[in-house]
Every structure is written in structure tokens, then in C-alpha cells.
Amino acid sequence: MSENNNAINVQAHLHHQYFLGLQLMVAVEKGPSIVGDWIFRLFRKQHNEKFLSSFEKLGLRELPHAVACAKYHVLSNNVGGVGVEFMAETEKKAWLRFRYPRWMYDGPAICGIPVEASKGFLKGWYAQNGVTLKNPRLGFVCVSEDLTGQFGFCGYFKEYDRDLSDNERLTFSPKERPPNFNPDEQPLPPDRHWTKERLDKAKRNYAVEFCRNGIIELANTIGERETLDIGKRAARLTGLQQYQRMAEELNCRDGNLMDAAQFLSSVFSGMGDNIKTTTNNNNITINQSPLRIVRDIKGVERNIILEIWVELWTGCVMSHRRFMNLNAKIHHDELIWSLSDNVE
After folding, report:
1. CA angle, corner 34, sides to 28 and 38, nearest 5?
2. What is the pTM of this model?
């Protein structure tokens, strides 16, 4: 695997870990109902932005809606590195089952997320598929949730013989079980020539998108001030906690300023940004552009994301044995990082 692919994978890992940490901090400090509202907003936003366009790209347009929706969730999640399986019972009833370890609640984080998060994404995305497809008979039946201690997230899309009311588009049937898994029936994307690098980038983008949209919708839920407070602390802690693993992956050393600059330059390249490093006495400057992390995002939302994102890398630098300062200045579509020794 090339160094570039290592950096891409590190970015995917870090953003995934940050999204987990942000969920946990919101759960602890704001409570279950806020988590549910936030995750609902997040998944509804991602549904509105991605579902129909991806539905077309994945070649699902001509399939019965229940089958197409189940296959969609397998294809879109598998590309992002999330294990999901498909089982078609009939043309009007098609199952999906997420497998462990769950990406959404990786590791012990699954023990700290309230069940309201599950209700949030079910209502935000799964219950909305029929609405978006303009099929009032299409609903989703959840038979198991992760956070209730059942056998994991599993359910089926069903097209009924009548139009559904708003509260019928999502129902629960915990005694049902899916059909047997058949590996030969699993869907594959239309373009089967996915290189390793292309898949790595897809996994990175999947994690990054959850962070970007997660921050935006958290601000819409609890306000800008509290989002910056919680988001920054979660980001700095994530950087502190994850630095050693990332440095090992990139063959970087916990050493002096040059070592820290090498780490930052290497890891920033995993975002696909242009990186330029210059040294002036005891100060190292890293110019990073065009900032994939806020691509196509403007105004206040852009500033909030960047302020929080900077804290990820501040945490990484603070994790070094040597005390250093890392400052960031935003200039149009460029971040100018300044790295120096802590002389206080």
C-alpha cells in the first residue's frame, strides 16, 4: 500500500473516531432526547442530499421499490466500509441486516449511545424512502435495533396494498427474523472496477461526510455556541487519543518540530489537498488548500466546521512528548498552519 493510501486510511479512521466521540459527548452533556433530534436531522439531511442521486448511479431505478431500497443500503454502505447484507423475500418485501462490528457505534462506543439515536436515523432516513420515491405504499419495518440489546440493526422494506399514513411508514416487529443469507444474491455496483485507492477514498469521504453534516445539524439542534464548545473539545480529545496510532501508520516519529511537521504534511495529503511546507528558523509553516473538509460549504457553517476541525490537529500536536504550539489561520480557501516550540 502506498504512503498516500495510508494517509487516506488514516483520515478515514480519524473522522470515524471523531464522529463516535462527538456522539458520546453530546449524549453525556445534552441527553438522549437531544441525541435523537440531532441524529434525525443528520440522517434526513443526508437522505435529501444523497438518496435519489445515488439511487440513480447505483442502477436501481427499474427495480421494485422495496428491493431497490434494500439493495441501495447494501451498496452505499458497503462502499463506505459498512457491512450490510441483503435478502429478498418477495418483490414487495426485501430485508437488510447490518453486521458487526457496527461502524456507527464502533468498539465500546455502542455501550454509551442512547437508543434515541437509533430512532432518529430510522425516522430520518428509512421512513422517508417511500416519500422521496413518491410511493405512498412503501414503508420500513424494524425487527431489531443495536441499542436495545437485540441481534443488531435489521429490518425490511415493504410495499403494502394501500397508502400508508405518516405513522405507518416506520413500524416495529421484534419477533420476525430475516430469511437465510445467500452470498450469491448480494448486489454489486454497476462499475465493478473499483481500485483499492478508490475504495479507500470512498471510505474516507463516507466518514468525512458524517462529520461535516453532523456538525452542521448539531448547530441546528443546539445552536452555534454549544456546538463549538462540544465539537472543539471532542475534536481535541480525538486528536490526542488517536495520534500515536496515526503516526505509526504513517511511519512518523514523536520527536521534534520537523517530525511533527512531517506528520501533519503526510496526514493532510490524505484529504487530497495541496500541501506546501516552509521552514523559517524555529517556525514551520504548512499551507493547505483547497480544503476538502469544507468543499461546497459556505458562510457560518463553513466557519464552524473549520474551527472544530483545527482542534483535531491541535490535539495531535499536543499528544507529542515535546511541547509545541500549533496555530491556524484561515485565508480564503487555504489553511495556514504555524508550528513552533512552546517557549512558555
Report:
1. 110
2. 0.94
Query: End of a domain among 185, 204, 238?
Result: 185
Closest CA to 89 of 178, 152, 8: 178
Give the domain-ending residue among 185, 207, 234.
185
Q: Tell me, what CATH number does 112's domain have?
A: 3.90.1520
pLDDT tens for each residue of 289-336: 999 999 999 999 999 999 999 999 999 999 999 999 999 999 989 999
142, 119, 143, 123: which is closest to 131 by C-alpha? 123
Residues 203 and 329 in one domain: yes
Domain range enclosing 156: 31-185
Same domain, 208 and 175: no
- Write the pLDDT tens digit of every residue in 264-274: 999 999 999 99
